[in-house]
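U., I forgot to send this yesterday:
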Amino acid sequence: MIRVLLVDDQPLLRSGFRALLDLEDDIEVVAEAGDGMEGLALATEHLPDVALIDIQMPLVDGIEATRRIAADPALAGVHVVILTNYGLDEHVFNALRAGAAGFLVKDVVPDDFLHAVRVAARGDALLAPSITRMLINRYLTRPISTGTGMGLEELTNREREAVALVAQGLSNDQIADRMVISPMTAKTHINRAMAKLRARDRAQLVVLAYESGLVAPGGS
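Result:
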């Protein structure tokens, strides 16, 4: 059973999301919150698999709530999905940097919404290759400084190669083709890299790859 926490300051939206989720046999809404502070308390109390968090809320916004969840070892199993009205913007990028697994626009169609909850619960990032490329082009082409002490030296050459391909927006199948390995082996390289870099998910791996200097914006 996938346990979900809803955090949004608009009761009507929360009730709409809950109505969809309650129809699914494999999903249970364990709690609802109307602001980020309450959401953090309920996340600690219920330890949901997925926290759907609005990006703009009173008291504690979605970015700060994501940052606190990502920083708390007790909440390591909570996968944050940011809810936004505006699509990919600077707020969403900051939430991904803070540790969100991905984002959903609030007018998402029901089937895509439910699919996203299941994907996040599995620990996968809600970043399609096209979204990854948009993220790179829009927010990671600004000047950055090469990061140090981020654990890059712990990566094997194959893990570095896999991370670089993730950061280019390639899927596991495409990475497997490029590296001439099986998709399962590609996934293994990526998972090991995430563990070594302490990245919560694929979304954060993309951000780390660029901010560390492992991959240069515009590079191939």
